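Chain A, query sequence.
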Amino acid sequence: MRPVFTAAIAVLVLVVLSPIAHSAPVRLPEPFDRTYGIYLNGSKVGWMRSMLKVGKQVEQGTELQAAVTGMGDTSKVTLTESRSYDVASGQLTTISFSQQAAAGGVKVTGQVTKGRVALTIEAGQATQRQTFAVNDTLQDALAVDRLVAQGKVGASLTVHHFDASMQKQVTMLHTVTSAEDRVLAGVTTKVYGITTKYPELGIEEQAFVDAAGTVLESRVGGFFVARLEPPDVAKKLDYAQDLLVSAVVKPPQPIAKPTEQGRILVTFTGFGGTLPPQGPRQVAVARGDSVELTLTKDTPIAATDVRANAQEARKQGLSEFLSPTPFIQSDAPAIRKAAEQAAAGASEVSLLNQRLIEFVYRYVRDAYVPAYSNALDALTSARGDCTEHSILYVALARAMGVPARVAVGIAYWPPGDGFGWHAWAEIWVAGRWVTVDPTWNQPIADATHVKLADGDPAEQARIVMLLGRLRISTVTTAPQK
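Chain A, predicted structure.
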């Protein structure tokens, strides 16, 4: 059971790095070295160091270390990110991102030439190279400070930022929402409230910035906070709260025999103005401030030949769900070998799915890993939580020719008497997507799975705003017939 803590932490890194301290729009920024405490649901779980060097290049760097407790286990993750801008042209020149956790590591490096970044992505001892268009500049990075220099409530700027961890260009809309005098270290100074919206990610962040452009505090949703602190204070951690347990969304009464329910009607508040994804097994209806979700368990998979199913999927434009990615290395020899061994000659989708589900369930040892995952590291380490189970299953399924993708959301977790943050998988067969769960050994997932987004890092970031906000008022169940 894993919330999308890492996606949220990556957004906090993005937020704190975006404004560069700078006393006037036409001058170079002043170097700095700052530390921030990272809080999830009120508990200190990590610290972040943000640095800036100025020479012929403006070099921005961040190191973040977090230790998140889940289900009694404390797991550590380290993230680093850097980017450089050429002073003369103001153009982005280099970017990098790396992550190290118990289940493995990811490293992304990029060189920018003529508006395109050539990325090298290393994950699970496999390397892929991709090229993307980029258009963010030093002026984009200085946007918040430019707004602070204006000091006008209501002023806004739209800028661009290429995120190496997501391999995605994102838009950021900064708006000054407040200005007030505060006493900081005995000195009265102006502090500005800045709201930043990320339209592609569906995220909104609130930050407080002083007159010099220094981010004092940043909040993402109601769950994640980065706060400027002295180094010795920032590095003091608090393991008192099990964040997986505290993040469970509890119904008024526990659900009896959740795996045996064929239909569940759940009324939520906290979605705001956005409905969750809909499909044959998940129907959402807005009723005032509430959302009524009708969840049904998928019907069994009809007898379908794997090759014929893959051919039809390609005809339907679903080739991406049969293809490898930097984190789903379905073309890697080790993945292919494991898939063939697990499949044991199955040529029909239902039987193949059952064998892959059972293989992953038995092979991956349960361990909480709050990090971006990739299939090769999950296969090599043979440990992980729901994300490692799911991404390995998807890679194995694609290697065998079954269209598959990761899904994230919440599902009923009996030990927590509520809906815990979870990841699972979906496979396309006979014209429909079918929900499966390798973490819980469910060839057809139970009806309690509430999908909130697809499973790539950018999509996971979308549900950050829901953490700590979802509430359940009613639950009605009907046993499976």
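The chain has two domains: 5-234, 258-479. Confidence is low (pLDDT under 50) at residues 1-5, 17-26.
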